[in-house]
Amino acid sequence: MKRLLTFMIGLALCGTMTMAAKDASAQNFLVIGGGSTTGVYYQVALNICKIVNDKLGGQGYNCIGRPALGSVFNIRSIQRGLLNYGVAQSDWVWAAANGKKNWEGKPDKGLRTVFTVHPEAVMLVTRKDTGIKTIADLKGKRVNIGNPGSGQRGNAEDVLRLNGIDKDKDIKAEGLQQNEANRALVDKKIDAFFYTIGVPWGGGLEIANSTAIDIVPVDTAPIKKLVADNPFYVMTKIPGGTYKGVDNDVPTYAVKATFVTGEKESADSVYTVVKTLFENLDTLRNSYANFKNLQPKDMLGGLSAPLHPGAMKYYKEKGWQ
Ligand code: GLU
């Protein structure tokens, strides 16, 4: 019964998404894919849509921001015409555009960037009672590496592999979606999880208030080399005091959340959306903690696939390109 229900919900969702994509050219019916409801991508999708609907609703624009499975899912869904826009990590945008990882040998030539949003840190979160202090301590533990389709899954796989941990043999790897993983950690059903997420992360604050958490450093020599070798990674620190009980800075590495679309999206529509968003950047900044420092100069940096011509047109007009 549960399976049937899931299937039917899935079918209904696919229906909506297909309809949305078909209607896109005629009515500017836009669907933006975010991430888990506990994350920041969903807030990107919701708050961008709110501005589009408020400012462009009268011109036939209708925007829906929806939860989705994350970076890989969003890029693939744009490729398949099921989403108009999505949010994705800069490392995955690069991999898709250059035919690496899940796109090995089959680059997504139609992927286009619009702007980058907030930085995201690779977080390895545990409870204090597990005694996990280093990546090596994960051996023998139950660890959520992220649901298929999420961006964090690739980061978790890299971190484990580069640190000599076989995800199939050395740990009990789980593929939970993040809102399930949050509860599973609190309920002691898992010992740790990886999540690549904006700082501060509201969902993390909630977990830290429910149980004593620790954040494990992700800055071993192989990680520093990974970062040095790839322009879309930077070393960063999760500032001490961000999460209850984690008082010292925790070193790790970071990516940038990127707002992406496909080449099929019309230049006029993308131009209109981008212009409206930048003209209302203060509204976006004030809509969620992770957006409060957004600056056009940073938002045009770190793009790891070609810019959409509609966005380019606006940036040229502004003298930003
Ligand atoms: N970085 C995660 C991903 O690509 C999502 C984080 C979020 O939802 O804010 O899947």
Any chance you could write out the topology, listing elements then pairs?
Elements lengths: L1 H26 L1 E5 L7 H16 L5 E5 L4 H9 L5 E5 H8 L13 E17 L14 E3 L6 H12 L9 E3 L3 H9 L5 E7 L3 H9 L2 E3 L5 H9 L4 E5 L11 E13 L4 H13 L1 H5 L10 H4 L9 H9 L4
Parallel strand pairs: 1-2, 1-3, 5-6, 5-7
Antiparallel strand pairs: 3-10, 4-7, 4-8, 4-10, 9-10
Helix pairs in contact: 6-7, 9-12
This protein binds glutamic acid.
Describe the fold and architecture:
This protein is α/β, with parallel strands linked by helices and 321 residues long. Helices cover 40% and strands 21% of the residues. The protein has twelve helices and ten strands. It is globular and about 55 Å long. Residues 1-16 and 18-25 have low confidence and may be disordered. The structure holds glutamic acid (GLU). Glutamic acid binds next to α5 and β7.
